[in-house]
Amino acid sequence: MAGEAAPGAVAAEYGERYPDASVIPMREYVQQTMSYATDALRGAAVLSAVFGPGVALLNTSLFLRLVLSRDRGKTGLLSAVGFSSGEIVGQVRLKVLVAAAAGTAMGVVFAGTAGESLVGLLVASAGLGIGELAFIPDPLIAYGVYPLALMGAGLLGALLLTAPLRRADKSAWLGR
Fold first, then answer.
1. Does residue 131 form part of some domain?
2. Distance in angstroms (rounded) separating the CA atoms of residues 171 and 152
3. Taking 60 as the threshold, does the pLDDT of residue 3 lie above it?
4. Are 58 and 135 in contact (CB under 8 A)?
5. What's the whole-model pTM score?
6. What's the rounded Cα separation, in Å, for the pair 44 and 38?
7. Total count of domains within the chain
8. Does residue 62 lie within any of the structural domains?
9. 28 lies in a domain?
10. SS in 3 state form for the chain?
11. pLDDT band at 1 (very low <50, low <70, confident <90, very high)
C-alpha cells in the first residue's frame, strides 16, 4: 500500500481482498470502541464549563458576604474618616477582581502543567481501558474565554453584594 493512501480506501481494499475479515479504519475503530469514554469526558467538560462560573459566583458571594460582615467596623471607620461610598465600594470590588484574577491565573497554570497528568492518572486508575490521556484544548477557550468567564463571575458577585453598600448607613457600623 502507498503511504499516502486514505485509510478508508485501504480498509475497503483489504475488505475486498479478505472478505472473511472485518476491516475498519483505525480512527473509526477507536471511535466505536472508545465512544463511551470520550462521550463521558466530553460531557464532563461541558458540565464543568457550564457550572464552573456558577460555582465561582457562589463561592465569591459567600466569601465576600463573610468578609463584608467581618469588616463592617473598618468600613464604618473609612466612611467616618471621609471616604465616599463609591471609594469604599470600588476598593472592595478591586480586591475581589484581583483575587479572582490571581486564582484564575493559578488555575490556568495548574491545568496547563499538572492537570493533564492528574486527570490521566485518575482515568487510567479507573479501569476504563485508557492508559494515556492527552488534552487537546482550544487555546482561545482554555486561556481566554473561560478564565474571563470565571473572573466575570467573581466580579458579578462583587457587584451584587456591594451595591447595597452605597445606600447603607455606615455610621451604624462603627459600634461593631
1. yes
2. 31
3. no
4. no
5. 0.74
6. 10
7. 1
8. yes
9. no
10. CCCCCCHHHHHHHHHHHCCCCCCCCHHHHHHHHHHHHHHHHHHHHHHHHHHHHHHHHHHHHHHHHHHHHHCHHHHHHHHHHCCCHHHHHHHHHHHHHHHHHHHHHHHHHHHHHHHHHHHHHHHHHCCCCCCCCCCCCCHHHHHHHHHHHHHHHHHHHHHHHHHHHHCCCHHHHHHC
11. very low
Q: Is 29 a domain residue?
A: no
Q: Residue 4: is its pLDDT beyond 60?
A: yes
Closest alpha carbon to 40 in 140, 128, 163: 128
In terms of residue numbers, what domain contains 60? 35-175
- The residue with cell 453584594 is 161
**Per-residue pLDDT tens digits for 112-157:** 888 888 888 887 887 767 777 777 888 999 899 999 999 999 999 9
Closest CA to 155 of 97, 79, 95: 97
Residue 43 CA to residue 18 CA, distance in Å, equals: 38
C-alpha angle 160-149-117 in degrees, rounded to nearest 5: 130
Q: What would the grid cell of residue 112 be? A: 496547563
